[in-house]
Structures are given as C-alpha cells and as structure tokens.
Fold:
Amino acid sequence: NAGVTQTPKFRILKIGQSMTLQCTQDMNHNYMYWYRQDPGMGLKLIYYSVGAGITDKGEVPNGYNVSRSTTEDFPLRLELAAPSQTSVYFCASNDRGGTYTEAFFGQGTRLTVV
Amino acid sequence: AQSVTQLGSHVSVSEGALVLLRCNYSSSVPPYLFWYVQYPNQGLQLLLKYTTGATLVKGINGFEAEFKKSETSFHLTKPSAHMSDAAEYFCAVSALGGGATNKLIFGTGTLLAVQP
Structure:
C-alpha cells in the first residue's frame, strides 16, 4: 500500500494564481484532513471530511476550498494565492469506525507564494 | 472542544540523558491522545497513542507516555536519548464522538536537540 500520497512536493505560485493540491489514500479511510504547518505554530486544521460528499471547516479555512467526491481523494484548492498561504501542507487520513485508528500523513507539499 | 499545550518549544539534552517532553490537554469528553514525531523534511509518524485502558503506553524507539487524567497531562519520556532522536515532536488530542470532537488537534510542537 502507498498510504497517503500528496502531489506536488514543491510549488512556487505568484500572487493571485490558483492551484490544487492533490491528496489520495488507498487505505479506505473515511476521515481525511488538510493541515498547514508554519514554524512555531504547529499544525493547523484547514478542512476535514468524514466521508465522500461531506466536508467541514477546520481552524483556518479562509482562502481554501475542498471537495470529497470519492473515498480516496481529497483535493485542496487555493483560488487566489496570497503570501500568507506560504506554508507546508499535509494531508492525513484515518478510520473513525468503532475503534479509533492512527492518522497517516503524506510527505507534505511545500508551497511558496511570491 | 479540545486543545493541546506543549510546554517548551525547544528542548536540549545530552546523549544518554532522560528525555521529557511535556503535553497538557483540554477536552470536554474522554480524550484520545497521541505523540507524533517529524524528522526534517518528512511527514509525521506516530510514536504512540492512548485511547482506553492502560494509562502507561509504550511506543516506538523506546518512548513512552503516561495519561494522567487528574493532571490533564500526557508527557513523553525516554530514559536515554540517542542522537537519532533529534526531531520535532507533536502532541495531539481527539475523541470518538460527534461534531467537533472528531478532529485531531495538534500542539505547537517541541524541537528536541541531542548534544553529543
């Protein structure tokens, strides 16, 4: 199993450009998450999803959008990139059935907005 | 709602010394607690977790943590630090429940340096 796969690994965007960060998991997990990591700030939850067709906002959703059309995929969309969105983005997934399972993380996408 | 506080953003120990990384949590429902480790330019890897049962949990690489409900703490320890333990460590809280309790909430992280 590949686990959680994020693409791209690195990206430089100009202010105002848009892009989609891709995330896919092959563990049939129902929960998926997007976090951003900034130095000294830990990981902040942007959006999460409890299953296909269901998404909800996290702590810092402004400037982002998500969709969950399938169990496997959870893309994160930046419509108008701003310098404040320069960060490292992590996608994660876990199973929240009868027994809690650990969250598995992708390797991250390092985004710079200039 | 849940939250996590990690005391000390930077901790430095000598090789062979005790490692103690502090984590306090707040939760309105019985918590699930986790420690993750992040090596440079890597994703996060689970060290250990507490869900129910025994309050002293053992993880990978010789780390362990004890859930203390009365102190709302989940401190991470290792008896003897190795150079390879140098990394950033994150405490996280979640719960099996409806609504906001389902989210995995992280602390701000503690960067562990190990001196030779």
User: Anything to note?
Assistant: DSSP finds no helices and eleven strands in chain A. The longest strand of chain A covers residues 42-51.
